[in-house]
Amino acid sequence: METSEKIKNARLKYLPEKISMLFIAEAPPAAVDRFFYYECVEKHDWLFLGIQKVFEPEKADIYLNSHRPPFLKKQMLENFKRKGRFLLDLYPTAEIIKGLSLYVGNCIGTIEQYVAEGRMSKDTPIILIKSTVYDSLYYPLRNKGYNVIDERIPFPSSGQQKRFAESFRRALKKCQS
């Protein structure tokens, strides 16, 4: 099975019936064995850990301290799904090809499909992760009437983990107001 198909299948496995909160990141990692929705990730997994440390800090610590057992990541992903949380990527693969408008259009098309299916509404909070994603999607989504949260959130790696957690928490508070 092709890598892009594996990524798609892993993501769809955790697609909630009703999305209560949508996150959009930039792209799956270049090292595809570290994809957010893969249950067996032995190292790095920056985005998953950054998000989990905000939502389930105790469980994230147990996961890390017990050497990342796949069954525990699966439990956290199932809980993420059960709470209606879902992560999309602006780009389908780490290999970003020119033509940003195509990717923006495809991403918005996916969101519009979820709205048409009744999986989410325009009021569903959308949190954009990474400044490139914010710069690409904030105004197009806002101009279409979506509840996109106005918070620039850095990617949680390369020393940005603390800034990510602070920005992510602010974004979550804005979802509640």
Q: What is the typical, i.e. mean, pLDDT?
A: 93
Helix % is: 40-55%
SS summary, helix count: 7
Largest sheet: 3 strands, parallel
What spatial order of strands do you see in the largest sheet? 2-1-3
How many beta-strand segments?
Answer: 3
**Amino- and carboxy-terminal Cα gap:** 43 Å
Which structural class is indicated by helix and strand composition? mainly alpha
Please give the radius of gyration in angstroms: 15 Å
| Fraction of residues in β-strands | 5-15%
Which outline best applies? globular
Order of helices and strands: HEHHHEHEHH
Question: Which stretches are poorly predicted, pLDDT < 50 over at least 5 residues?
Answer: none
Task: Provide a compact summary of the structure.
It contains seven helices and three strands, in the order αβαααβαβαα.
Description:
Strands 2-1-3 form a 3-stranded parallel sheet. The relative contact order is 0.17. The chain has 7 helices and 3 strands; from the N terminus they run αβαααβαβαα. The protein has helices at 3-13, 46-55, 57-65, 70-82, 100-116, 131-143, 161-176; strands at residues 21-25, 85-89, 126-128. The termini are far apart. It is globular and about 45 Å long. With 177 residues, the chain is mainly alpha-helical.
